[in-house]
Amino acid sequence: MPDVPLTWEEVARSYGRKIYNFAYRLTANTDDAADLTQEVLLRVKRGLASYEPGSFEGWLWRITRNAFLDEVRRRQRRPTVPLPDRDDRFHPGSTPSPDEVLAAIRLDENTQNALLKLPYEFREAVVMCDVIGLSYEEIAAACGVPVGTVRSRIHRGRRQLRELIG
Amino acid sequence: MRRMSIVLVLVAGLVIPVAAPALAQSLEEWLERAADAEFEGRQVTICDTPDGRLTEAVDVAQQNRVIVVRALGGEVVIRSGSVMTTGVDGATSISSVDSSSSALLADRYSSEVRGRSTVINRAVDLVEVLEGDLVRVRYAFDLNTGAVLRSDVNNGDGSLYCTTQFVEFRPNADIAVAEPSTTRELLLTALSSDVSLPTEVAGFAQLDMYEGPQGSTAAFYSDGIFSFTVIVADRKIAVSDLSDAPQVKVHDRDYVRRFSAGQVLFSWESADGGLVMIGDLPLDLQGAVLDGLPQPGATGFLLRMWRLIFR
Amino acid sequence: MHSGELISAYLDGELSRAEELELVVHLEGCVACRMDLADVQSARSAVRSLPILDAPGWLWPADAARRQVVRKRPAAVMAAATAALLVMVIGLATWLAPSPVLEMEYADIAVTHGARVVQDGTPTSGGLAEMATLIRGVGAE
Q1: CATH number of A8-82+97-165: 1.25.40.10, 3.40.50.1220, 1.10.3660.10, 1.10.10.10?
Q2: How many residue contacts between A and B have a Cβ separation below 8 Å?
Q3: ipTM, 2 decimals?
Q4: Three-state helix/strand/coil letters over A100-139
Q5: For position B128, what pLDDT does the model report?
């Protein structure tokens, strides 16, 4: 990961999608996720000027997480559970059978529903690890907790998920 | 009589052993595990204050990051950082706050594991939060669930300020939180304001500033262990319930002060307007913090005019 | 008792070599832990196989104006003459009128502080006794 000041456009392009997925998996609501992504990118834009070289990913995800929490509280909304977007799930050329499609959709819905039932701290740790792909160190830096706490939250989150998904 | 026996239970409950095996966990990890603990019980808080000994008893249940506190026929539910209060008459209000910063443990603190003991016949791990040589807080973590069975908070001179301990404790809980028909929702929004409050006071960092009651401004400070909120308004603040609270001197300055078990509130007027400070600070930190905040001062006719014109 | 957490960390490649060795040895003799591993692995792949979604097209470029929550004091811009006149007029009024006082409920102050305290996690050293003041406050309304 190059540690040079990136331009706003570069950041928006590379990270916007990840940020959107972070927000979506935490809320299961496309509108909220889109709004949250905009808010985060705006904060990053404002913060880039004063960014001091360090861990860019850590800095970025700290902002993302804080902005997410602020916006969620501002809205006070219960997350709804719509059907998952299927846009880029299947590549043209490989046509799965209707059963396979149905099974895949059901599993995704199941998993997303289960995610929403986790306590927030566990949910965010699991999403940061398994959806965004951050390392434990990066998650620890973003959430302001020791790595041991990250380990514990991810593990407990997964165990709870297993029970919920069945 | 009952109060006496509770005190005896608390005093007798803590025996400090000699050997101390070191464990690799940080204080945050101990507290994290405590936040995950599942239990229900009755918790008593006893504080020795200049206004005398104050006690409070609450019934607590904790499960899956939801905490339910019951007292006096009312209830508080804490979930995902928001507080839902249901009063004796059934009226419910939900309060939550915008915050963008988490409290970090101030540099002046370190922690030490002090070995095993028992509290209400349950095995506990003792962990001390140290400020140099001073034991500031002593926690007793339940071996089985990780819950904080007891905590002792000391003043700067080593005297005991508050003790909080479970007098009944049962692992496991079954909390069902009903969605209330809310009667009032209070969402505090963060703002950047030019109200002049220091960003750091006596080692406490200002983490957030937001709109307080009645159009005032509230700023939240924390050092990772203790915290307080300062409320500032452009006029003198008259706090209900404080009519019989004494005016006291702290470091030679006058304040109105009211203690409750585990909390203190100060009210005063400075050149900036009215101020209120509320928090769980032990006695010496109360003075240290007040030293760093706008001081009580005479507000006269000229100052009132100045504020009226140049607001 | 922490071997459980090692299992998740092991799947994520976050263990030191020493810890990994310790875990593998432990797994040999612990059936419950092997079941744990299977559970955790299943949950982990379920989340990892969630599709990476495209944000809605209208999101880029994200330059939409956002609500700015900033309160500033208006600059005091007054001609000297007007100021002098105002001083006389207002001065007289405030001299005669009593200083206004802001009435504030103890409960509102306690709730404002309490709601922020719980944001960072379980209130511990302050005790949950602080919450009792919230109850008392709400009930008194």
Answers
A1: 1.10.10.10
A2: 50
A3: 0.83
A4: HHHHHHHHHHHHHHHHHHCCHHHHHHHHHHHHHCCCHHHH
A5: 95
